[in-house]
Amino acid sequence: AKVRGMLEAGKIHDAGHQANTNRSSRALSMVVRSAMSSQPPKASVADLRAWASTDLMSKNPLELEWLSAVVDLQLGDADGTGRRRLEVVRKTFQDAGDEEAEISVLSHLGAIARASSDSASLASLLERGAVLASGGDPRARGLVALGRALAAQMAGDPKGAIAALEQIPPGSLTGEWASQALMMRGTNLLLAGRTEEALAALHNSTGEGSEATRSIAHDLLSTAKWYSGDRLGAIEESMISETLALSSGTLRVVQQRRAWDACLLAATGQACAARNALEQLGVGSRDSQDDETQALMRITEVLLLAQEDKLEDARTLLEQTKVPTRPTRSAVW
User: Fold this and answer.
1) Shortest CA distance to 86 belongs to which of 104, 110, 105?
2) SS (HEC) of the chain
3) Which of 31, 137, 217, 229 has the smallest CB count inside 10 Å?
4) pTM for this entry
């Protein structure tokens, strides 16, 4: 009962601690399911890893497999292990008739499809989601509408995405998912050229959800402010985003935020600060950096070369830079 009350109050970390203190595998299973009921999870990577390592989870093997797969995803999932494990877990939940858990797993798989611009996988996930939504579950209907908006965004149809978001049943998405819907609405309003409305939606999204979710929201708001001409506001939002990313403990996300900071600093003529940011990012192996981080670092280097009037070097480097497909940044790039 204590753990349930903490979860209802959004105190995920405290609920996990309480479950461990009382040595309750059932309570910890409840915490894990609650934390992973949205994407990104409502818990830090440190919490997720701590729960996965406790012997209490051995009594909940399916939740443990789900939890371990999500940890892989949060750490980058370089070899695709998390993706494969999640599909096995999803199928097990489907066979067991556990629709609530399956809906959550579908959301994690959808995040992978989005990150890799895999429209075919997203279409397959939406097909399964539509089957679950046909039973009348409002949350499932809301998530399917959110998924259709994502598919439209990936297809370069922001107006279609906005129309899909309007099909979300009122009150069906709360907390993390409400923030996700606001972020997607703001992103597509920005892509549709409705900048003021986009800024309002993205500003509202920064007040909802976990630190990981709010980090993404501030990151998107930073992009929107830059696009609207508010350079200082963009840098301020980016710094907030990085701080929240550090708190949530996801290395890949932290690297993205720092690369974006370096790019903004270079674009506003702060060459020394941009170089320092690049040097910090260069510590460690580039193998741990995703395509977006590496592209932002390259663009920062291009801007710095251009400021030094090394235009041929800048042009050559720019031609060699592969820019990943991410509609929220394409206008800025």
Assistant:
1) 105
2) CHHHHHHHCCCHHHHHHHHHHCCCHHHHHHHHHHHCCCCCCCCCHHHHHHHHHCHHHHHCHHHHHHHHHHHHHHCCCCCCHHHHHHHHHHHHHHHHCCHHHHHHHHHHHHHHHHHCCCHHHHHHHHHHHHHHHCCCCHHHHHHHHHHHHHHHHHCCCHHHHHHHHCCCCCCCCCCHHHHHHHHHHHHHHHHCCCHHHHHHHHHHHCCCCCHHHHHHHHHHHHHHHHHHCCHHHHHHHHHHHHHHHHHHCCHHHHHHHHHHHHHHHHHCCCHHHHHHHHHHHHCCCHHHCCHHHHHHHHHHHHHHHHHCCCHHHHHHHHHHCCCCCCHHHHCCC
3) 229
4) 0.71
pLDDT tens across 35-55, in order? 888 777 888 888 888 898 888
Q: What angle do CA 87, 90, 94 make, to 5 degrees?
A: 140
Q: Which residues contact 97 (CB under 8 A, 6 or more apart)?
A: none
Q: From 307, 286, 308, 311, select the one nearest 297 (Cα to Cα).
A: 286
Which tens digit of pLDDT belongs to each residue from 156-194?
899 999 999 999 998 888 777 888 889 999 999 998 999
Task: Extract the tokens encoding 252.
Answer: 């890949």
Cα separation of 1 and 308, whole Å? 63
The angle subtended at Cα 39 by Cα 188 and Cα 142, nearest 5°, is: 60
Residues in the chain: 333
- How many angstroms separate the CA atoms of 320 and 305, rounded? 14
